[in-house]
Design a protein that fits this description.
This protein is α/β, with parallel strands linked by helices. The chain contains 16 helices and nine strands. It folds into two domains: 191 residues, Periplasmic binding protein-like II (D-Maltodextrin-Binding Protein, domain 2), CATH 3.40.190; 149 residues, D-Maltodextrin-Binding Protein, domain 2. 45% of the residues lie in helices and 17% in strands.
């Protein structure tokens, strides 16, 4: 794997960062999030309040979560982004390869996190999920399960799914009647992979693929697509702020947790660790919850009954109805399955 081959060169290149440190110190602290409504809310409540409290200037940008740019920055010693929000499989892979700093738990309070979300190189930022939804003003009824979503006779029309193996293969097996508890055990076998792709074959000609979180909302809104799997936060924002008449079904929830991590060799490592602690703390998260349906890995905020009641779309309120993405599975099998999915989609 390319990332594994880079590991030695990455570690050897770290001293080069010293040559850039003086100039880099003059820049703002840079935090990279997932974009969209989540980041808009985080900017107003988490990022700006950190600057107000500490005087540390912060610049934020968005990323699609790919690791290639981070590997390149660390390898060359030109680290221009300090904090990244990253998926759990990418975090574990990157931590093993040395592109993320170990979390300084002398600065970041470890005991405030939900069990299993304070890791070696990252701390839980937010739970996220995707569900099937549709526009009720255009359809009197819609899919209430993945079996329905894959049934083009019962619910004719275009579908939209994410153009990745992750989430799409799980959805295919769930549509084929596999219980949630057995999805990954089956998907680890050739039989299970073949079964997932066979189920996807039934949607050939009926799918419009999306690669960014905004696209499925755009597709459904324009009428190009009838039913879509999309991120819950974006759907709920469209319903609450744009007054869209959308219906989502929590029985189709596929969810995980994204993490905040500090890029190895960041010349602003200490400031970055302080920011990690701030943006995962109770006060700033309560403010974010007022304007965005967050589902944080902070125990106190996540378990707050007032926040739960005011944010019924919190993903971690619906874990009993959904499938949690198995990080270990995707670390082991992700590269091969993504390659097979890309080849299948190109046929």
């Amino acid at each position: 794997m390319r990332e594994r081959r880079l590991r030695n060169s990455v570690l050897l290149a770290l001293p080069l960062a010293l040559g850039f440190a003086a100039g880099a110190q003059a820049r703002d602290l840079v935090i990279i999030g997932p974009g969209g409504g989540y980041q808009d809310a985080a900017r107003e409540t988490l990022f700006k309040s950190f600057t107000e409290a500490t005087g540390i200037k912060v610049k934020d940008d968005a990323s699609d979560g790919e690791l290639a740019k981070i590997y390149s920055m660390v390898e060359t010693g030109q680290v221009t982004e300090d904090i990244q929000m990253i998926g759990e499989p990418e975090l574990l892979r990157g931590c093993e390869d040395g592109i993320f700093e170990p979390v300084d738990y002398d600065i970041v309070k470890k005991d405030k996190f939900i069990d299993g979300t304070a890791l070696e190189c990252g701390i839980g930022g937010a739970g996220w999920g995707a569900v099937v939804f549709y526009d009720k003003s255009k359809h009197a009824a819609g899919p209430q399960s993945f079996a329905d979503f894959f049934d083009v006779e019962k619910f004719p029309g275009k579908r939209s799914l994410r153009s990745t193996a992750q989430m799409t293969l799980e959805a295919a097996l769930l549509a084929d009647g596999v219980p949630s508890a057995e999805v990954y055990e089956l998907l680890a076998t050739e039989e299970g992979v073949a079964r997932a792709f066979a189920r996807l074959d039934t949607l050939k000609g009926h799918v419009v693929w999306w690669s960014t979180g905004a696209q499925p909302l755009q597709f459904v809104g324009s009428g190009e697509v009838d039913f879509a799997l999309a991120f819950t936060g974006r759907i709920l924002r469209a319903m609450n702020e744009d007054k869209k008449d959308y219906q989502l079904d929590w029985n189709t929830l596929i969810y995980s947790v994204d993490y905040w991590a500090v890029v190895a060799g960041s010349p602003k490592k200490d400031e970055a660790m302080k920011m990690l602690d701030w943006i995962t703390d109770v006060g700033p998260l309560r403010e974010q919850a007022k304007i965005w349906p967050i589902s944080p890995a902070n125990k106190e905020v996540n378990e707050d009954p007032v926040i739960r009641e005011s944010n019924p779309g919190m993903v971690l309120n619906h874990t009993d109805e959904g499938l949690r993405i198995n990080t270990e599975f995707w670390v082991i099998h992700g590269e091969d399955l993504e390659a097979r999915f890309a080849a299948w989609a190109a046929r």
